[in-house]
Request: fold
Amino acid sequence: MASTEEIRSSLAEIVNEIAGIPVEDVQLDKSFTDDLDVDSLSMVEVVVAAEEKFDVKIPDDEVKNLKTVGDAVAFIERAQNG
Amino acid sequence: MSKTRVVITGLGATTPLGGDVASTWEGLLAGRSGARRLTDEWVQNLAVQIAAPVAVEPTEVIERVKARRLDRTAQLALVAAREAWADSGLEDSGLDKERLGVAVASGIGGLHTTLSNYDALQQNPRRVSPLAIPMLMPNSSAAYVSLELGAKAGVHTPVSACASGNEAIWLGLDQIRLGRADVVVAGGAEGAIMALPLAAFGMMQALSKRNDDPEKASRPWDVDRDGFLLGEGAGILILESYEHAKARGAKIYAELAGAGISADGHDIAQPDPTGSGARRAMLRALSEGDLSPADIFHINAHATSTPQGDIAESIAIRQALGKEADHAVATAPKSMIGHLLGGAGAVESVATVLALKNRVSPPTINVDKLDDEIDLDVATEQRKLPDGDIAALNNSFGFGGHNAAIAFKTL
Reply:
């Protein structure tokens, strides 16, 4: 099972690929919209890429709850363990 | 009421001959071909395996994250628009952006996006990009150009197949003459060198099949022509009211004197063999520009290298200009860059403006033996244009019977 840091790091690569945010800026306390300037359509792309990368399902209804990078990492960890 | 005079104050292009206006113009003057045999895996089953791809990949020029949100067609449009905008010097001119319009055409729209997302859909609907619609919609190029420049007058996308680029210039001219804008960023783009268009145009018997000799494939007016060569690219012109351009001391390339549109009302794909619709478009462009056939010294012909189309246009030019066509040099850039579909009229308008500005007609290549039925003064080498006030026509015709002619003149 991937560690929190491994998930954060992989997610950072996805966010970089899609939105061009430097990977070192994608830290657990950062808000996708307020800090990283990831818009709603890019967020959909990030979610789908994360689903494929981590082999989890992230329901559309859940996306609005993933405000920070930490929220997303925690969701992925729970989904992988569940 | 006198007409508002409109001039060209900026040019941009990305074509099979170069990633900007200077390299494209140099290639045209040198008679260079941008054609090549495609080697991609997807081309192996196709009857037609040749095309004229852009010389510089747009993704090498546009920032990576921006590029991935744009269809290839919009990428090409953006490259050309950035160059034209910088060339115009308008950014720091204090232009009111509510007086800045955009008219960027495409013949097909975001076909790369449409097809790649259809492939994604077959695998998994969640793989369809949330950006697919804004990328594939035909107005995507015009919209992204307006976003880039902050243009807030009308943003338009004429769609008239291969006449689209010229129709955008026609539309932009009207916006300024109607007082709706002071400046319009006008042109067209197309990035559709893909299996589907090659197969579909091929099935229409519209494309040259000279797979073994791609540089000789596009040969407008030559007796052995067998169809057009599919190209890609974009051209953008900055149209500006003369008063506005003069007030800011802008560099002016030429005057956009008039534009004429007509429809054949004849057939969805075949040109009217009598040339009647094309003749009316040219005459409208002349009359709107207060020009007479005697003023025309250079004709950038549509001349795609199809057997019927080239003859119909020659007939139309003769009908429109009569004996005055004797002193008009005819040139066919498609012999070098291929057919850019929705980008064709725009790139060739850029070439026409430069021909007037530099007083030289680029050559038409591959005219080894001029077809007897072509009654035009075809330049097979560079030809100097005379001094004094002269004018030029640029023709574009599209499937559906669309005819669009633009008249430019020296200033």
